[in-house]
């Protein structure tokens, strides 16, 4: 498998650029640079190289350039992986998902630039981040699969067989994580990061989540985050009690628990620092890695709707 080292190196580069694409998207949102290039897309202000380039234009145009580069790398990686591992279902699946969702988030990004409806646009921007997240996770799963193939690791989990109910639960956790991520993206795009001011864990007089105010939207995300923490803790407890001999699952569950704890801390830091850029980027980075970890556990667990052979 040494002859495929270049392919694996490309996969690492693609993953890094895909992460940078996610990070730049968060920077665009946080700095309010979404209109830095006006309503033109994919060029900026109707020009390939605009004469006037204020900071918001540089940030927005940089995001577009990096996203285009990520898209080309993902396409190249997918085609090459298919050629080398044409008989491996996971390689083909993760490749297709990577390409599909990076194209989808690009198209949605273009629509948000040209679309003027403020409220619906914010929901579209939240979707934009969600699709970028799936694309990044798919790239990372492809990277992992390429290295597992190099090491000759089987697709099925080792150790005690996972019950179908548990496998369904892991997939349900991944689905809920994705929903919780959308609540965070909505907080950013509805400018609700400081909806509760500097208060934590309280939120002034607001106790319940909703969509009627920035405080309610912020509380929606807090409740979603608390539930996600508890579900991750449940996952770790079940794995340690029933599947301790499954090394990959134990490691993955511990990593997920550590990440969701760090994510909670990063959220508190974000509130207490007034939503500064670095805290917001840390928050985005951790949840991105966490989501990728949970989808990795889904990959290990296999599809629950398939009969065991």
UniProtKB/TrEMBL annotation:
GO biological process: heme A biosynthetic process
Keywords recorded for this protein, A-Z: Cell membrane, Disulfide bond, Heme biosynthesis, Iron, Membrane, Metal-binding, Oxidoreductase, Transmembrane, Transmembrane helix
GO MF, any single term: oxidoreductase activity
Cellular compartments per GO CC: membrane
Chief location of this protein within or outside the cell: membrane
Membrane disposition: Multi-pass membrane protein
Pathway: Porphyrin-containing compound metabolism
Pfam families, sorted: COX15-CtaA (PF02628)
Location relative to the cell: Membrane
Source superkingdom: Bacteria
Transmembrane segments: 7-28, 65-84, 91-111, 123-144, 165-185, 220-240, 252-271, 277-303
InterPro entries (alphabetical): COX15/CtaA_fam, COX15/CtaA_HemeA_synthase
Protein name: Cytochrome c oxidase assembly protein subunit 15
């Amino acid at each position: 498998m040494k002859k495929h080292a270049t392919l694996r190196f490309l996969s690492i580069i693609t993953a890094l650029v895909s992460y940078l694409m996610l990070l730049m998207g968060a920077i665009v949102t946080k700095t309010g640079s979404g209109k830095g290039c006006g309503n033109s897309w994919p060029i900026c202000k109707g020009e390939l190289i605009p004469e006037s380039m204020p900071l918001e234009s540089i940030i927005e145009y940089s995001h577009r350039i990096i996203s285009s580069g990520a898209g080309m790398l993902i396409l190249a990686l997918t085609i090459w992986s298919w050629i080398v591992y044409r008989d491996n279902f996971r390689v083909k699946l993760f490749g297709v998902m990577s390409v599909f969702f990076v194209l989808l988030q690009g198209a949605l990004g273009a629509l948000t630039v040209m679309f003027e409806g403020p409220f619906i646009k914010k929901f579209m921007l939240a979707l934009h981040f969600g699709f970028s997240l799936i694309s990044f996770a798919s790239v990372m799963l492809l990277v992992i699969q390429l290295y597992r193939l190099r090491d000759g690791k089987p697709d099925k989990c080792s150790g005690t067989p996972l019950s179908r109910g548990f496998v369904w639960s892991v997939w349900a956790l991944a689905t809920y994580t994705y929903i919780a991520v959308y609540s965070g993206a909505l907080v950013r795009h509805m400018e609700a990061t400081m909806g509760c001011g500097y208060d934590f864990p309280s939120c002034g007089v607001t106790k319940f989540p909703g969509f009627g105010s920035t405080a309610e939207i912020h509380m929606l995300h807090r409740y979603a985050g608390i539930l996600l923490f508890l579900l991750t803790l449940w996952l770790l407890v079940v794995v340690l009690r029933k599947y301790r001999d499954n090394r990959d699952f134990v490691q993955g569950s511990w990593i997920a628990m550590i990440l969701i704890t760090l994510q909670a801390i990063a959220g508190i830091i974000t509130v207490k620092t007034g939503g500064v850029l670095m805290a917001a980027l840390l928050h985005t980075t951790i949840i991105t890695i966490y989501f990728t970890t949970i989808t990795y556990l889904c990959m290990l667990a296999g599809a629950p709707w398939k009969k065991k052979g």
